[in-house]
Amino acid sequence: MTDESKEAGSVDRESPRASARRLQQAAWSPEEASLLRNMGQRLRTARRARKMTIAQLAAVVGVDAAYLGEVERGRANISVLTLGLLGRALGVGAAAMLDGGATE
After folding, report:
1. Are 59 and 73 in contact (CB under 8 A)?
2. I need a labelling partner for 98 at 20 to 30 A (CA). Which of 1, 18, 80, 90 fits?
3. What does pTM read for this prediction?
4. Separation between Cα atoms, residue 97 and residue 34, nearest integer Å
5. What's the pLDDT tens digit per position in 60-88?
6. Which of 70, 74, 97, 66 is nearest to 84 (CA)?
7. Which three-class secondary structure string do you get for 11-44?
């Protein structure tokens, strides 16, 4: 939106949550951002394989569906505890969601 198309006195505002998320994402290294995106993709694949919606999985695990959607898109960090709960609900090991099952 250009300045000319904005109404007088209107201000674009970002929610506090969106602002905090944007600042956190800016602090992630490329490797960290990649890890979160890849983990989110594996989480989504596992959820879809079990024919679950985001809302259904969120209810089972006890997290907000919007937050889980952000995790799946790689836009939110996730605690180890929540990762373990998700893995248990999906029948997938937490390590497999993090690294795709690769071993060192």
Report:
1. no
2. 18
3. 0.72
4. 13
5. 999 999 999 999 999 999 999 999 999 99
6. 97
7. CCCCCHHHHHHHHHHHHCCHHHHHHHHHHHHHHH
